[in-house]
Fold these 4 entries.
Entry 1:
Amino acid sequence: MGELTRPEVDVPAGDPPAELTVRDLVVGDGAEARPGMVVRVHYVGVTFASGREFDASWDRGEPFKFALGGGRVIKGW
């Protein structure tokens, strides 16, 4: 996979979804990540109401690293 670039996040108009929505922006070509594996991800967090960014790994210049399924990150990861 080539060089990654910071994505633009477009928040749709209307009411927020009633349930968590997860969407892959970039799909890699490696093995699928499974619980217990340590993954490194870049992310951009925005609020649905305003579309304003509140956090982004890109600002720190390195991906966020965590173990999948450990319950230490927000729902959806």
Entry 2:
Amino acid sequence: DMVVGGTDTTSNTLEWAMAEMLQKPEILKKAQRELEEVVGIDGIVEESDVPKLHYLRAVVKETLRLHPVLPLLVPHCPSSSCNVGDYVIPKGTRVFINVWAVHRDPACWDNPLEFDPERFLRETHWDFTGNDFRYFPFGSGRRICAGIAMAERMVGFCLASLIHSFNWRVQEGEKLDLAEKFGIVMKKAVPLLAVPEPRLPKPEL
């Protein structure tokens, strides 16, 4: 179940990350320079390299901030009436957490609509544990996503491999569209079409 559940969500996050970096080529170039330093222009990305790729991991975190896979987290239902802030939540009420809105709240984030991976380098305490309710793309508490470790490894490794092995550009005559399509999973309204160009000196890599 974890593998099947992680397939669509992983590819969706990769698509958003690539789209945001194509929109801001300087971010893509900076991530590629980090890969050259850590992996080497003659090397291929190994899973053991990913923890050393601090900027690329910040790109992943920023992608999940702006484009959380599930805009509404798995619903909760209180077993007894309770107060949340100024609201009374009656027993049995189905409660949805709008993580998409929280991640774009200007009370929580500077320039919340700006794709800025540097924010996760300036403040390094952000993680996926859900302990800070300003950033919890995988949920929080006992019902937090069980596949966090797998998702973090898969997205980081796949994204690193894609941008290390290839340069990318938008298809000729096409305009990059970052519009979202709301649903159970937050997808791009228009699928990303990007053209790869080999960048490593050895084609077999």
Entry 3:
Amino acid sequence: MYYNDHAPPHFHARYAEYKAEYAIADGAFLAGYLPRRAETLILDWLAIHRDELQANWDAMRDDQAPQRIAPLP
């Protein structure tokens, strides 16, 4: 996530040399590319941490620091 980033609420994911963006609300792919396996892991992580991601999005829109979100176990 980036401060004052464009709507809709989303996050940026990176895997090796690949980058992609996904909507927080429903995991919709927005831009970029990730290999299928990496995308599956990202969407699993999103399902677990959706509320935390939205809270971070809201905080960053108010110029507050985001909280760290745990990786997949």
Entry 4:
Amino acid sequence: TLLVERGDLGSGTSCSSTKLIHGGVRYLRQGHLALVKEALHERTWFLNAAPDLVHRLSLILPCKGRLEKAYYRMGLGLYDRFAGLDPKDRTRSVSPAEISTLAPGLPPTWKSGGLVYMDGQFDDARMLMRLAFCITSSGGSLSTYTDLTGFGRVRDGLRTVTLRDRITGETSELRANVVINATGPFTDELRRLEVPGAQPQVAVSRGIHLVLDPSLLGGETAVILPHTEDGRVLFAIPWRGKILYGTTDTSMPGPEQDPIAGADEVAHLLQHSEQIFGRSVSAEMIHGLFAGLRPLAAAPGRQATASISRDARVEVSTQGLVSIYGGKWTTCRSMAERAVDQALAVGKLPFRPARTHELKLAGPLPEVPDRADRLTRDQVAWFVQEERARTLDDVLTRRTGLSLLDAKAAVAIAPVCARWMADFLDWSDHETQRQVTAYQERMRRQWEPLNR
């Protein structure tokens, strides 16, 4: 088994999430009950399979009145039943005074108090590294910074694929029993590479997050605003000593390799910040900003992306390409099971019942600094030598998250980090400076919406 990744692991979508392993309260209101039940089942699996990376998270749902509180209490009661929670973990009512204790930064305007319910939180980048470790320790291989540039004919049950190393430029050909297309927002791109003119099946949506000063909440309990005028849910979540605040849902004409937040999306979050935090968010309170793309299983342009189900679909082309798209982080295990079962059938390989539901995601957990000035040469050595980091952005954005936690500090440490990486990757002085310049330019573009 070979996993081919166009860029770094997680550089497309997987490291730009809200960092939640959850059933999705919003999907209850939309009537997607089967999806919620599946996601809550998978949440339990994640909590048991990787307890060092996934933990329980309490969320406050503040309410404006008794009727609203009763409405959400009924929905969250169903949520808890789907999850099979113990009584101690089920949704409970809280008074305004209790909200002030759990999140001192919140405004004293929620006169009916609210509800506290449980979901899961994780580090998406670390989870991705753990899954990569599980692949290689089970006999699989990884090839990052590699493009799949072409499909050959199917002969004797095998098909040829052409690969190109994006760093060296070298090309190679491999023969495979079956190819699974799990490229998220770029699913249609690979489908058209195999069958030119293939009709698009994936709608692309952009979501952004702000990383804010922790004083805005003042506690370790998250807050959910369950409904905005555009149908989105907003979260304010304690995360690595900061507050992760988002998200938006903006329909896109197609995928982007490095999505940038729109100024209108930033304005949308800032507009609603007073509703959650009771005060406006100043520029000094914003430590980070990032954008990501959602691959939604629906033809583009047919409906508002916020209303599209997060269900996953598996499709097999006439040439035998197995494509899986849609879904979300929480359901990745069950999605993979469906895709692999289909691939075994297409490749006429021996069928084996999936056992991933029994899998424990054990593996190394390196020390990851929460501040740029605590990044060490030894940590960078690990990211390069053990976790395939190949660019400055790989280390500062995905291995450590420093670009998200404190963008200015990450930019300041970039030249030092690049010199360390140069020692491990044998970069020339020219390449070292190119890496620093490319990273600084990327961060400038990421922050541009805040400067308008």
